Amino acid sequence: MDFDLSGKVAIVTGASRGIGRAIARTLAAEGMRLVLVARSRDQLDELAAFLKVDCLVQAVDLRDIQAPASVISAAVEHFGRLDVLVNNAGATVRGDFLSLTEDDWVDGFALKFFGSMRLCRSAWPHLCLAHGSIVNIIGIGGRTGSAEFAIGGSVNAALLNFTKSLADRGVKDGVRINAINPGSIATDRLQKRIRAYAVEHNLEPDSAAREMAKSMGVARFGEPDEIAWAVAFLASPQSAYIHGSILDVDGGQTRTL
């Protein structure tokens, strides 16, 4: 399907690996020009060299209060416009609530929530001009609480509400905002959990992956490309009447409304 994105400009955060890297590859295949954002310059430079489109690398830490605004300024200065913002960066610490430190909580909100909020705020005037869109990559933990995911669930829930709040404003300003909740996606982070599960249950890695998926109530784990395809659709004019929506891409793991 032609998503009519060719020549448009997108910012993808957390682009150096995993879901963000897959999103960058997919949007590049649609002909978009990209701003690649993460902390690892080497990985971003390698990705930019691989993609066959004009890329601007921004190796920054989005926890820095000034970094989001600098990314938006650099993007507009380089490309002259901004059409799509994909907020994907952010990882949070898992663990028992009573073992989580104050710094763990501050760090969890600093990158994923406040980084996304500040990017949206700085990008908003430019997205208004382009009648552009925002896609927030959040996570199913924001819908269903889990004892070992207190920080991540809280951050994700805040981002879900933030998405709805921005969508309310976006109706007036002509900016579309939607969110994707990935389930368990086969990234490096998930592989670490599978290896730990294998050791705990004395299983081979392949068997551990199957058993772990079964314990979560899904037939298999998702692939990063499956999130990326959803991003391309939500960023495109083909989804023009989808606004303020939360799309669970989780193999059916979320059973709550």
How do you describe this structure in short?
The chain is an alpha/beta fold and 257 residues long. The protein folds into two domains: 9-185 and 223-248, NAD(P)-binding Rossmann-like Domain (Rossmann fold), CATH 3.40.50.720; 186-221, no CATH class. It has helices at residues 18-29, 41-50, 67-79, 102-130, 150-173, 188-201, 205-215, 224-235; strands at 9-13, 33-38, 55-59, 84-87, 133-137, 176-182, 246-249.
Provide an overview of this structure.
- With 257 residues, the protein is α/β, with parallel strands linked by helices.
- It folds into 2 domains: 203 residues, NAD(P)-binding Rossmann-like Domain (Rossmann fold); 36 residues, no CATH class.
- The protein is built from 8 helices and 7 strands, in the order E-H-E-H-E-H-E-H-E-H-E-H-H-H-E.
- Helix 1 packs across helix 8, helix 3 packs parallel to helix 4 and helix 6 crosses helix 7.
- It starts with 8 loop residues before the first strand and ends in an 8-residue tail after the last strand.
- The mean pLDDT is 95.
Note the main sheet: 7 strands, parallel
Instruction: Tally the beta strands.
Output: 7
What is the CATH domain class of the largest domain? Alpha Beta
**What would you report as the Rg, rounded to the nearest angstrom?**
18 Å
Weakly predicted, low-confidence segments: none
Q: How confident overall, as mean pLDDT?
A: 95
SS field, number of helical segments: 8
**Number of structural domains:** 2
Shape: globular
> What order do the helices and strands follow?
EHEHEHEHEHEHHHE
- Looking at the structure, the CATH topology of the largest domain is Rossmann fold
The CATH superfamily of the largest domain appears as NAD(P)-binding Rossmann-like Domain
Strand content: 5-15%
Distance between the termini: 30 Å
Known CATH architecture of the largest domain: 3-Layer(aba) Sandwich
Q: How do the strands of the widest beta sheet line up side by side?
A: 3-2-1-4-5-6-7
Structural class based on helices, strands and sheet pairing: alpha/beta
